[in-house]
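Sample pair:
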Amino acid sequence: MSNLPDDLMADAAHDEEQVKDVDDNSSDLSIIDQFDIDAVEPAALHDQNTSIPGPELQVRSPVSSSRHDTEERSDVLSMVSSLGSKETTPIDIEKSTLPSKVKTASSHLATFQTPRSSRATSKSDFSSKVPQTPRIRPKSSIPPGIQPQEYASQCITAAEMCRLSPYALHPDEHRLLRRYITRPQVTTYLNLRNSILRLWVQNPQVAVTRREAIGCASQRWFEAASLCYDWLVRNGYINFGCVSYPKEPSLIIEPPTKQRTIVVIGAGVSGLGCARQLDGLFQQYSHDFVALNELPPRVIVVEARNRVGGRVYSKAFNATPDPKSGFAGARCTAEMGGMIITGFYGNPLNFLVRGQLGLAYHALRPETTLYDSNGLPADLESDQVVEHLFNDSLDRVSEYKFDIKLPPLVFGNMPLINEGRDSNSEGTWTLKQMDDAANLGAPAAQRQLASRGIRSVGEQSKYGRAALKAREMGWKLKPGVSSTETVNLDQAAHADKACMGSVFENAINQYTNIVEMKPLHLRLLNWHVANLEYSNATDLHNLSLGGWDIDAGNEWEGKHTMVIGGYQSMARGLLMCPQPLECRFLSPVQKIVYSPDFDKTADSKSKIICEDGTQIEADHIVCSIPLGVLKSGNVQFDPPIPEWKAGAIKRVGYGVLNKLILTYQDPFWEPDRDIFGILRDPSNLESLQQKDYAESRGRLFQWFNVSQSSGLPCLVALMAGKAGYATEKEDDKALVEEATTLLRKVFGEDVPYPKEVMVTRWASDKYSFGSYSSSGPDMQWNDYDTLAKPLGNLVFAGEHTIGTHPATVHGAYMSGLRAASEVLDSIIGPLRAPEALFPAKEATPSSLKRKSPSSHDAVKKQRQEHEKNFAEYVLSMLGPAPIYPDAPPPNAYSFFRRDNAMLIRQRCLAKRRAGTKASKIPSKDMSQMASRMWRELAPDERMTYEQRFRAAVVEYKSRLGDLLEKMREREEKVAELRNMFDELTASKSTQREGLAGISSSSSSSSSSSISSSIRNSSSGTPLPTQNVAVVAAVAQAMASPITATAAITNTTDATDTTATTDTTDTTATTAPTAAMSPSGQQNTTVMDTAMSIAMMEEETGIRISGLPARKMKRVSYAEDQSSDVENEGAMK
């Protein structure tokens, strides 16, 4: 079924360059006196200078990276255009022209003229009275005159800003399209999708319409553009947040008799994000509800507090700012909860904060000064070596993390996408057919665990020998410690109740036995540990060994920023813009009654019960209650939550981070620094044991100068780890006294007491019971995904339901977008692709002329089919040919350089002068540094690499010898199969003369045809039906050649009439050299048969018969070759 409204497909048959006149009813357009329909294309409305701030849309080199300089991504918000809509002129339908039963829906009901699903009355009944939508001109949304490469650069940047890869299908896109799209078409689809995203980035204040999205495509791709638009909208990649939706009337056949109710519990960022997204989706898909004879659902937000934001709370100060500070009349606030936006590039909050609400922000300066416990700045060199050791220890602990396999990605043609060009090829096999042929099955829906259990690393860590690494970092080894000493964490990792903290402490304790570590080093080290505990809101011993860094690799790019005037302003914007949401404050929920079998029971009613007895019936419930409240059991569920979800609630960790907020009359700290740290002493001042630092390291360890965002001279100190829990029971005065003592050590005795003090105690807040989630010690690898799974008509949202971005404000918002999509899918059904997604290309007179058959084509077709059938036959009988084993590196030096790549890079970076702009290290510098390190290597270390090299060579030679024996056996079998195959296929009298010389044609003839078939099999392409029939018939002949001859004759009859590729035949005039006789007598050697398909080596890399293909350069290893000579040559 078509995915487009009928009126948008009315012109599908006319030429793409021809735009027909608008219908006579076009005079009814509401603002026709201002714009002409054909003159105002969609591109004219979104190519204004209204784009969201971000990287400069510059011309992209085909080989350049898709990333941009992150230093330029936090520029000030540009003025957004007052343009009200991106869509073409709306249609004004006068009520007097409609039939008596047809009424105009209110402006919030519909976006499009007619519902995509069928209705009781045909659209044609009103065609003479209702004005028709202007036809869409192909690629009308692309601005005229723009260079293709510049346009491609803008589209690629837009995709990256929308958290999508511009070069690959999202796994959900792959599953949606795999039955319809071919590999070459992926490139065209990605260009189309990126073009739609560009429209959104250009002006995120106004929603992209379906007409504009379709205007990015050529006429054949209109259906695909509409489907892509639906996928982007329903998954929250475009048209989300505080966005305006164009108002168009809709035709209603009968007055609506039903309206569903959606209740969202919680007015935090996830709950408000979900409610706002639902409101927008119901407006954009109101035509689906019209088709169901329903009003768009009603969305009600229920909040326990008397404010919005949840754990994003900007509390107003009692003090007022200095009139000369520039904040006169502004609201001065303290960030009690979330306060930092961790990069804008790719972050959906970028569109909310800068593109829609226009909130001012301050980019934090990353320069940090660390002060020792005595108040003096810590030694910079000591800080650097400690930081290197801290990161190396984390790297070694990370080797025991969950081995999670990500869903496969399908990439387009990157050079074509960079140049803004579509693929010229249409392809033959869909992605599903290729997967089925390769027995891959459907792609994984989500992440998967590649291996179970904790792995063993031992002393073979990929990060090298600890002693050698420490010496490279700048540490001094203890007397008697060899450079071969290393850190082995296997015993600690496999111990009972092992956790991230226990294994990390074991790594530090082993390092203290290797290097000369002083108390200053331990204080510096534990400051970094406290910073890690701040990120996780808990002590390291409460973190999972396998999942403590489960969100690694999903960070945004750009500077960290703070919203001026309060982060909570974003939550208020979600509540109020573009129109207020219905929100009931001071309504804590006591009980949730839901329908676990909602999918099987239509129109199931659920309800929530508040503490004051108020009940609200709902068709769907979205639960964004914080994880701490779910753990407490204060909210009841009827029926009770199943054990699989209750177990995840228990296992996922939930910690606390508290703050001490101090305001002063005047700043006494460095005004050009936004962050500074203070090292804390352990209970035993001379202790070198990690456990002695656990209680104190997180107390007031990091300080933020928030004067630029709060409006007052203000400092915020963090209480992390065990100190965060201790804050819950400590007195405010004691905390202020401790903070003032620390500040006076650093900035002098003149530091005054603060004017105003605020202390957070999130663990005592009954509506949160903590700050944010973390990976608990017993957490399973997919617990975050488990928390996100719905229970019937009960959907879950919150930062604890998104494993890729947990414990973040943007993660909470993204979970709200996902929950809204799940609610919409359960109401109107999931998104499905139409069967005729990509109509076949219409043949032109020139193409028909090129494809007209000739006598030469008939001969060529016979030869091609014959060789294809033989290649498939060999593959079915013998399977794929063995391939060469991977050759080891050419010498011991190569092993050394591969194992120490990170150290080489670090030394190259350290060698640079201070202040040098970061850029890619030249390969020449890397090689010189590696050669120097190899020469400085201790003899025993070098001997280790020599032994590894020699062992690798021995193993390679052994595997190579086994391969040669298999090759000889395979060559003999292929020759026998060739004899049998030609004898049987030559029995057909009408083909005997043409096939007599096929087997012995020149090597190029065989290799050209067979390599084509091999490429198909190696890439997962299914074999044509008629060829499979030939293979089956010949396979039968192996058992009974006499009875199978007739079957092959009948099968080849079918192949004679089958169209094949029109590739030029380079062997038509080549004389046969080693033909097979009809009797099957062999007239060629085994090697001649193998050489007949030799060209496949360079083309495919995979061989069916003959010698295995080999693309990489072969490396020979002489028995008497000197490794020292090799090493010297490598260094030169």
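Residues 367-403+455-558+657-761 form a domain with the Polyamine Oxidase; Chain A, domain 2 fold (CATH 3.90.660.10).
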